[in-house]
Structure prediction request, 96 residues.
Amino acid sequence: MNPLFVTFAVIVTLLMLLSLYRTVRGPTVFDRMLGAGVISTKGLILLCLIGFAYDRIDMFVDLALTYALLNFIGTVVLAKYFEHRTEQEAGEGDPR
Prediction:
């Protein structure tokens, strides 16, 4: 295994831990969503680095694309949920 890829993988993992702090301690739900998205993006980079290290980039890029698609769908679903929840909370105070 190339030591350069291992070094990059360790750096990306440390950056993921920094994003984990924002995900856990975020003052709002949107900060937590953003932190989770950053962790997922770093996970994609980590998957590609592992693919380069094991000389199987084709398989790991397929896994990374699938993971990115699931991350995108999850983000859209959460955004729609919070948008709908906010509209319901705003409608409760409406006298109509």
Remarks:
- Residues 51 and 60 are 5 Å apart (CA to CA).
